[in-house]
Please model this.
Amino acid sequence: MEQYNVTGMSCAACSNRVEKAVSKVEGVTSCSVSLLTNSMGVEGTASESAIIQAVINAGYGASPKGIRKDKAQGADHEVALAALEDHETPVLKRRLALSVGFLLMLMYFSMGVSMWNWPAPWVFRDNMVGIGILEMLLAIVVMLINKKFFTNGYRSLFMGGSNMDTLVALGSSAAFGYSAVVIIGMTKHLSEGHAQMAMQMGHHFYFESAAMIVTLITVGKMLEATSKGRTTDALKSLMKLAPKTAVIERAGEEMTVPIEEVVIGDTFVVRPGENIPVDGIVLEGATAVDESALTGESIPADKAEGDVVSAATLNQSGFMKCRATRVGEDTTLSQIIQTVSDAAATKAPIAKVADKVSGVFVPAVIAIALVTIAVWLVAGKSVGFALARGISVLVISCPCALGLATPVAIMVGSGMGAKHGIMFKTAAAQEETGRIEIVALDKTGTITEGTPKVTEVLPADGVDPSTLMQLAASLEVKSEHPLAKAIMDYAKANQIAPQVVTDFSALPGNGLSASYHGERLIGGSLQYLKPQVAVDSAFENRMEALAATGKTPLLFAKGGALIGAIAVADVIKADSREAIAQLKGMGIQVVMLTGDNERTAKAIGDQAGVDQVVAGVLPNGKEAVIRDLQKNGKVAMVGDGINDAPALTRADIGMAIGAGTDIAIDAADAVLMKSRLLDVPAAIRLSRQTLKNIHENLFWAFFYNVIGIPLAAGLYHVLFGAPFLNPMVGAAAMSLSSFCVVTNALRLNLFKMDDPSKDKKLVPKHRSTENIIADNNLKKFNNQKIQGETKVQKKTIKIEGMMCGHCESMVTKALESLEQVDKAMVSHTAGVAMVELNQDVDDAVLTKVVEDKDYKVISIEG
Model:
């Protein structure tokens, strides 16, 4: 998306006009104009010059925004920060100060001298014509100070369009023009010697109204600009975090260089109290890093050798040497800034309602004002009276409030999300998230930690737990299997040091063997140990029970005697149960999708508390499940892996875990930077509140005009005897309406998105997910081709040696590497792989790819 600054816009009608003009340019596929940030996002192949010319032809100005103009992070952020600086408020303050000064002089003479006989120079005493001329000159000065209303308003009118400035310009000009005609009439009466009639006409000046209207509108514009500036505070604070320099090592020496000169592979140094300049990996040192600026997490994260660090985070305690891995616009900070900026430049679907109204609003108001004037003239009222009613209609109408109702709420909501580590990529994604009815969660890495951990240590009778762990660690220390890593991590955490073993050997997929002080030490699955070691039925039943809960029991024996077992599993995250409970409390149905076997998946699903489990699904299978779920409501998919990308793209809203793969993050509509599942209900909660705020803003914007226009026209006086509305009061009301809309949106900053206490339960519009997915055992999603119902050839392979999910993954990848294999469904607990074939393949070929991974094929059927 290319972004542009747009100048000259004053209301929703302006942004709508620019959007239509640019959308007509050949090569433009989409265009979104934001009145809030005076920016425009354009997608397509159209040239920059053609786009800018289209904006100019529509009567406005445009220039490239420059957020991605410079690859260097520092310069990039400086340009972007400059684009967000509030240049409008200082100008409006100066305009307002000058306007008020001359307006006070005007009011002194128009009311103080003329009505209350306040002191005045002798030349103006009893000289209504002189006072009128002075009022006209002072009004001209105020109108010149605020000439932008007139130049913008009349230019739009003469170019076939109209906007808020058109209403202000017409109202002020009408008041001024009528008053100027009165002065001419007074001079005519004086020339004819009718001084008394001239004096009476002096009470029909509207010069103060002409000046007051533009001054009050300027007050409203200044309040609006000040409030609008606060809506981009989150984005500006992020940009200010961007480091300007880095300390790097080159040729064995430390040197401080501008951030633009850091390249991938550079070694940089970070001392306590310094910000980390770019994304990198720790080479030396250990410290605690404050990452709250990026993730919103207040507790510092411990960093040691091999850990990842991000630009703009604060090193709190230790000294670090790191290698740069991502620089410039590729850093996490830059991507966050770009995401928030892109979201601000896009338009939420609900904004189209206001756009359609704004497109006809201003012409309709002008027509209503003309009709009002005509009706009062026909009713026998004076020209001055009828004109005052028409001017009141013009100045009280406020398309600004309509235009700001949606974008200010979206911008504040995006900023709130960014502060808490929730990144919405577009305004449409932020709006749609609040309408989610079903959430589909990937298991591994989303609900669970994604890495195996020791869950139970079960020593045999007479064996000490620490002895079992030490012997197990001594055997597993030389293994590269993920389950071995889980045991070593547990031993390290409990300060259990492995002992030296000899004659180590590994049978991949089966077990390990070594010599320990002259005795044979072995470890592996129950099937591997049973032929070699006596295992009583009670212990065997206990192992089967662990396997039934999704855990992998590893048994160990020394000298031919069982010494115990260690259970390893991919445990669910600490916040998963609470997050799923909150989603269900919001009336959202939760489905877990996983490629794991049904028994393991069911165990995890029961622990997490999901409504339904769909097990054994492959990437295309997940996408197919999402398509079926969408028949019954809006669906959000939450995942972290490459295999989740199709489902993330298919879902109404795709949410990627921040620690996930780049492909998953690119495919998603929102990114959860903290990698917390609790941020899913928080994102939905924030979106719901933002939608509620938008609805409030739109209601008051419409309600204000529905009430205000008839009041200004004098209809309430005719019906209920209400007083007539002075044009100056109408101008003040118009100014305050936009200010109120923006201020209401800023209330979102007070919203507690992590607090579930006020959640409202969504009433399901559709049937239960249990009726949507009646069969979760691969019959629908994996036994048939995804694109059709055509049955395909299948073969079942019985395999020996698979022990865990890692083994399943290795066999799956090996089988799916064959061109003849469409899909492979593998279960380590059943010791079976089922393959779908697009053409016949020799059993010897299947056997070879499996046994090349050090597993044994027992038989092939089908």
Notes: DSSP finds 32 helices and 30 strands in the chain. Residues 67-75, 774-791 have pLDDT under 50 and may be disordered.
